[in-house]
Amino acid sequence: MLTYKLSSGERLPVLLHNGLPQYWPTLWVSAKRRKCRVAARTLALDLRSVMLVLEWAEEEGFSLEARLLAGRYLTDTEVTAISDRCDRRHGGNVISLRTVINHTYSMRMTRIREYVDWIAGIGMGNLSSAGRSYADCAEARTHMKEAFTSRQQIPRRRKTLHAREGLSTAVLDRLVTVVSPDCPENPWSTRSIKIRNQALVILTLTLGLRRGELLGLRVNDVDFGAHRLLVARRADDAEDPRIDQPTAKTNDRMLLLEPAVAEILRYYILEVRRLTPNAKRHPYLFVGHKPGRNEGRPLALVSVNALYQGIRKKVTGLPSDLTSHVLRHTWNDKFSELCTKAKTTDEKEKAIRNYLMGWSPTSETAAVYTRRHVRAEAEELSLKHQRRVLASAGLEPDTESTDEPPQSHVTANPETGAYLVQTSNATQTKGDSVGRDGEKS
Q1: Would you call 194 exposed, middle or buried from its count of C-beta atoms within 10 A (0-12, 13-18, 19+)?
Q2: What is the pLDDT of residues 100-130, one digit of tens each?
């Protein structure tokens, strides 16, 4: 697959075969899916789904498009085989026995169903080659489409036990400690990269921003006078030289910054970014600092991934699945805790969270990001219930275990850019930088 950047700034991914774009998938993306005004990354996911069914058809020894255009549609058995393929993880040319999450499976089946039905619809315009009546062809086409729909809606396994959660307070304290440049376990090297990564980690922890939102920020999105940050969606931005453009998936919003957080951004912009070669050629806030062709260029999504890979590999005591998105879950957990302590009503909490996260006012997405908090509340209520049962039975429940994890918060020194990590057990002064070079040059 290859993504082209058009003169308008639009990114258009295409499937390649022997170095050339494949006709029907490219036409489908260009003529049908682009009309839905979906992001380029979504189009790429659509094409990866189509690629699965094209590879399956090739293994079966036939051209999918040629067969559908001739009015010979997929059978129930074939749709079942495609369904099984959609349920598996794929890496290179290897199909794993491990299954994908429900959302990925559903998305793949939906896009393949749309693609094969679209091809079948084109073929119905030339029924003479198929030798069948229009009514018979329409009935068979409907049956094929329903075969995909029925398999897509089959109740599938629930994977809530080990679903992604935010970090515990202890692990969060550990993370904040190791990203300090004064910590002997700090996994990164150069000062400029550490300061940049500090801003990335702190912004993610304090505002819960996505990778695309972070890397889409511009210098002038930060209002230091008002301590505000604009998070805006700028899909297909012609000024962005990145082919795989990071974009916000959510609504535009203006967020208020704690002065300490604003100071971290100010220090990075004035003391690091301003002195980096090529950084003044574009407006994007976060740039590469490793000497080479990417120095000063807007930071790429893979660089953020590599940043967290470096932390996971070189620092003990952190989860193996630590990513930027896990920190977004952490933000939602901490926000839930604040609302619980403030006795905020459920309706008001939902409205505030949806605004801060950029979700629509009626969004129910919060349930995905608050698993740890919900689980903690469920466990607490369960223990209370157990104690009541024990008390009613004349048994003495154990009420001595009241240990609570240490609480922490971050403040910054505006003179030096250093920040303080304060916990209920200790206070440590941290340096003014963070991070290892997660870039790939």
Answers
A1: buried
A2: 878 889 999 999 999 999 999 998 877 654 4
Q: Which runs of consecutive H residues, i.e. helices, occur in 299-423?
A: 301-314, 324-341, 346-357, 366-369, 371-392
> pTM for the complete prediction?
0.66
**Is residue 93 scored above 70 in pLDDT?**
no
CB atoms within 10 A of CB 88: 15
Taken in order 216, 265, 434, 426, the sign of the CA dihedral is negative
Other C-beta atoms within 10 Å of 304: how many?
23
3-class SS of residue 256? strand
The enclosing H or E element of 389 equals helix 371-392
For the chain, what are the domain ranges?
Answer: 2-152, 164-441
CATH number of 164-441: 1.10.443.10
Residue 269 near residue 285 (C-beta atoms within 8 A): yes
DSSP calls for 51-81: HHHHHHHHHHTS-HHHHHHTT-PPPHHHHHH
Contact between 50 and 28 under an 8 Å Cβ cutoff? The reply is: yes
Residues 371 and 163: beta-carbon distance below 8 Å: yes
Closest CA to 334 of 379, 376, 378: 376
Mean per-residue pLDDT of the chain: 81
pLDDT at 266: 94
